[in-house]
Amino acid sequence: MLLFITHRIDHFGFKDPLFLGLRDEGEQLLLTVNEILTYKGEIITYELSSVLDQLRLFYKGELPNLTDISQIIKINTGRAKKSFPKNQLPWNFWIRLKSEIGEEKASSIFKIIRYSNDESEIYSTLEVLGEILKTIYYNSTKILKESNQSSRFFEVENKIQQILNKRQIEGICLDLEKSNELIKKLESSKDHLINKLRYTHKITDLNYKSLRLQLIERDYHISSKDYSYFNLISFLKSARISSQLCDDLYNALRAKADFESLSQYISEKGNLIYPIYDCIGTVTSRILIVNPYIQQLKKENRKIFIPKENYTLLYCDYNQFEPGILASFSKDKEMIELYNSEDIYENFSNYIFGTRILRKEAKTIFLSYLYGMSDNNFVASIENIIKSKGLNNEISAQEFFSKFKELEVFKTKENEKMIESGFIESETTLIRYVRITNKGKGKQSEKRFVLSQLIQGTASYILKNAILDTMQDKEIEFLIPMHDAVLFQVPSINIKEKMLFIEKCFVDNFIKICPEIRASVDFNDFDK
Asked: Are 304 and 487 in contact (CB under 8 A)?
C-alpha cells in the first residue's frame, strides 16, 4: 500500500517529530519516525534526504521502501541539469509545484509550512500538499509507462535507491587522524598553488566565470556560457596534458575543492560521514554523491576512508569499460578483436605517440574524440602533446579510427535516429531529449551527445545491475560509487570469497549486455 508523506511537523513542542501521511485511498495519518521505519508498504516523498536524517535517530537496521518523486520526474524530463537555469530544475518538487498550482499558491503553501503557528492551518495545508504529491506521482508514473521506462525505474533505479538510503543512514567510516593531517597539508598546497597562479600566470580570481573568460582571452577553446565547476574541471583535465597554465589551474582548483570538502567532513559527529546520494545524478543515470564531494577527491586524498571494525575495503574497477561497450554495440570486428587482445588505450598511445607509456593522455583523447571533440581540437590536442613531450610521430590519429568501419556505420545510424526522433535511447539507456529544429527534427549539433548518452548510459545500467547482484550477499556492504567502479567493505575473514563473488557479478553483467567482450575487473587500492 502506498503512503505519501509530506513535511515534518515540529512546530508545537512534540517530543518526537511527526510526519503527515496520506494513504493511497485518502486516509490521513500523523506518523512518528518509528511508524515510518516499520511501515510495510512503499513510501513516496519529495524530501528524501530530510526524511533519512530523521530516520537515522531511530534506525535499527531496517528501512522501509522509500521512493523519491524527484527521481521519477528526472527520468521523464530526460535532459541534463545544465539545460536549465540555476535553481529552476524541473525535478525539484517546489519548482514542479509551481507548474501544478501556480507560483502564488505554491509560495503560500511554503510560507504556511515554514512560518505559521496555526496548527489547523498547517495540517490542512499539508493535507493539500499530500494530495498534490499523490497526483504528481500518478501522472509521473503514467508518463514513465508510456515512454517504456517504468520497468527500468522500478526494477533498477528504485532498488538502487534503497541501497543508497541504507548507506546514507549508516554512514562511512573516516580515519580522523589522517583527515586532520590531510587538511593541513591541503591548505598549504592550496595556498602555494594559488600563489603560483598569481605570480606565474597573473591569475588572481578563481571564480569559474572569470577563469573561463581569462582562458578565452588566452585563445583556449572553451565555452563562455557554461560556468559550472565540473565542466571547467573537465576542460582543464583534458587541456592540462599540453598546457602548464591549465595544469596549474587544475591542480589549484582540485586542491581548493578537496580542502573545502575535507574540512566539511570533520564537522560531522564522531568518525562517520553520511553522504547524500543522487541515484540518477546525471542524464546518463550515473550515481552522484552530492554532499560531500567524495567522488571528486584526488586519489591520494581518499586514504581517509576506512572500513568498519573487522571489515576490509574492496575497490572493484571495470577494465576499459566504455571502449568495450562501444566495440560491442558497433559490432566492429576490428575494435572487438583489439579490445579482447590488448589494452586499447596503450595501443592508441603507441599509434599516435610512438610509445605505450602515455596511456593516460591517450585515454583522455580517445574518449574525447568519440564523444564529440571537433577534428581541429582533436588534431591540436595530439600535436600539443607530441610537442610538449618532445616526440616525433607523424601518423594521423584519424587513420587509427578509420580502421573501424562498422563503428562509423554505427555512429552514423545512431546520429540519424536522433535527428529523426528528437531523442536518444536504447534498451539500456534512459531517454535523452535533444533540441529540435522548426521541422521537429533533432538538431545536427546534438550529435555530440549521441555516443556519450548511449555508452555512458549503458555503463551506468551495467554497473547498477552489478551492484544489485552483489548486494544479494548480505555480508557485502556498498560504500562509494565511482564512474566505472565501486568501493565495498567485506568481512575480513572472507576477503577472497567475497572478491570472487563481486568479480563474478561485475563480469556477468558486462557480458550480459556485451557478449562479444572479454570483460574483466581489477581490485585496486581506492587511494592509489
From this structure: no
Indicate the pTM of the whole model. Answer: 0.91
| Strand pairing report for 276-278 and 288-291 | antiparallel
Kindly give, in sequence order, each residue whose CB lies less than 8 Å from that of residue 151, ignoring residues fewer than 6 positions away: none
- Cell 571533440, residue? 373
Q: Which residues pair with 19 in a beta bridge?
A: 8, 31
What cell does 415 get?
546520429
pLDDT the model gives residue 266: 62
Rounded to whole angstroms, the Cα distance separating 446 from 272 reads 43
Does 110 fall in a domain? yes
| d(C-alpha 151, C-alpha 349), whole Å | 41
Dihedral angle computed from the Cα positions of residues 82, 83, 87 and 89, in that order, rounded to the nearest 10 degrees: -110
Amino acid in the structure at residue 95: I
Q: Is residue 166 part of a domain?
A: no
Q: Is the pLDDT of residue 157 over 80?
A: yes
What is the average per-residue pLDDT within 184-205?
92
List 276's β-bridge partners, or say none: 291
In tens, the pLDDT along 44-91 reads: 999 899 899 889 988 999 999 999 999 999 999 999 988 888 788 999
Question: What is the domain range of residue 100?
Answer: 2-147
Select the more confidently predicted residue: 10 or 201. 201
Q: Is position 105 within any domain?
A: yes
Domain count, the chain: 1
Q: What is the tens place of the pLDDT at every residue in 495-521?
A: 999 999 999 999 999 999 999 999 999
Give bridge partners of residue 490 from the DSSP assignment. Answer: 312
Instruction: Flag whether 273 is in a domain.
Output: no
Burial 91-113 (b: 16+ CB within 10 A, else e): bbbebbbbeeeeeeebeebbebb
Separation CA 296–CA 288 (nearest Å): 10
Sequence letter at residue 31: L
Q: What CA–CA distance (Å, rounded) separates 42 from 54? A: 18
- Residue 393 clears pLDDT 70, i.e. is over it: no
Could you tell me the pLDDT band of residue 227, with boundaries at 50, 70 and 90? low
Torsion angle (degrees, nearest 10) of CA 76, 80, 81, 84: -80
Q: Rounding to the nearest 10 degrees, give the CA dihedral for residues 32, 37, 40, 44.
A: 80
Q: What is the DSSP string of 334-374?
A: HHHHHHHHS-HHHHHHHHHHS-STTHHHHHHHHHHHHTT--
User: What's the whole-number mean pLDDT along residues 361-389?
Assistant: 78
The C-alpha atoms of residue 394 and residue 406 are separated, in whole angstroms, by 26
Which DSSP category does 447 fall into?
A: G
- Which residue in the block uniquely carries the three cell numbers 602533446? 385
Angle 83-87-93 from CA coordinates, rounded to 5°:
100
Contact between 522 and 507 (Cβ < 8 Å): no
From 462, 407, 391, select the one nearest 242 (Cα to Cα).
391
Q: How far apart are CA 246 and CA 201, in angstroms?
A: 10
Secondary structure (3-state) at 38: coil
